[in-house]
Write a structure and sequence with these properties.
The chain is mostly beta strands and about 100 residues long. The protein contains one helix and four strands; from the N terminus they run αββββ. The longest helix is centred in the first third of the chain and has 13 residues.
């Protein structure tokens, strides 16, 4: 039985690629909000710190559910690029209203 006809080649190549791949790193879980909203009268606070190479920063958010299926949120973020060239500071402020009519 030859190497090409046995179907072993794709398995060997897949294994080699999987073993040579770099690890994956993800942001904190609440960076992408879930599909639901807060219940009426509910509130939340989120805070996170991140580092990406020479850029370090933090972000925060506060949310409130004024009525059913609606969430109002304000957020902020700051980061500093500690690299020698260019040295930059990033500041962000935002607001959002989320309406999800169908929730399970």
């Amino acid at each position: 039985m030859s190497f090409r006809k046995s179907g072993l080649r794709p398995i060997v190549l897949s294994t080699v690629f999987a073993l040579c791949s770099a690890p994956a790193f993800a942001e904190r879980p609440m960076a992408v909000d879930d599909a639901g909203t807060l219940e009426r009268g509910g509130a939340k606070l989120e805070f996170g710190w991140s580092r990406d190479d020479a850029v370090r920063g933090y972000e925060g958010a506060a949310g409130f559910g004024p009525i059913d299926n609606v969430e109002v949120e304000v957020g902020f973020g700051r980061a500093k690029d500690r690299d020698a060239d260019p040295d930059a500071k990033i500041r962000a402020v935002g607001a959002a209203v989320k309406w999800v009519p169908l929730q399970l």
